[in-house]
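Good morning,

Attaching, inline, the backbone tokens for the sequence recovery test we're adding to the shared suite. The designed sequence is right after.
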């Protein structure tokens, strides 16, 4: 079994409901051992779109990294994600953030997630459930950190 961190994000329709629903669906991939609160975050990359709701879950899984990514993409489809443009609005986005201590760089799959250490909306919720990531969150600028707000338990 490996412990994987999964990042969730949504900013179309009822984004909080979509993220909560996706958190429940992660149980199909393994044992969900921790889940963060829901967070509201300013959009990143492409700024002209609604705020995001984000969360992170830790899942103990027997799926290999590639199989886990495939399962996450299938779940995105099931939950109504329609491809738009890069960093554009989405009904649900599921990212594989970390997979144990594994480092992997293959076409279509990089672990840890390549933008993990730049994103307050990922590091904030991740640090809530895995204190090892607190220093990484603290290294972000105040402006980045202030763009992310805890909503409460989802
Ligand atoms: P982002 O998550 O950066 O906003 P997308 O969800 O549109 O962007 O993902 C684009 C592609 O990134 C996916 O099709 C996937 O193959 C690739 N990818 C590479 N590494 C990962 C990872 N660790 N988790 C999720 N997707 C990844
Ligand atoms: Mg993604």
């Amino acid at each position: 079994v490996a412990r994987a961190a999964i990042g969730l994000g949504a900013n179309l329709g009822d984004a909080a409901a979509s993220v909560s629903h996706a958190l429940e669906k992660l149980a199909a991939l393994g044992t969900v051992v921790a889940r963060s609160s829901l967070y509201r975050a300013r959009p990143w990359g492409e700024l002209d779109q609604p705020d995001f709701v984000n969360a992170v879950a830790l899942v103990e899984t027997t799926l290999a990294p590639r199989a886990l990514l495939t399962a996450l993409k299938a779940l995105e489809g099931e939950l109504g994600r329609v491809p738009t443009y890069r960093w554009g609005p989405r009904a649900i986005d599921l990212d594989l953030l970390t997979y144990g201590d594994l480092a992997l760089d293959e076409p279509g799959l990089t672990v840890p997630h390549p933008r993990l250490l730049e994103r307050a909306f990922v590091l904030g919720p991740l640090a809530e459930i895995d204190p090892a990531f607190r220093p990484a969150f603290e290294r972000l600028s105040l402006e980045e950190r202030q763009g992310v707000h805890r909503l409460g338990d989802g």
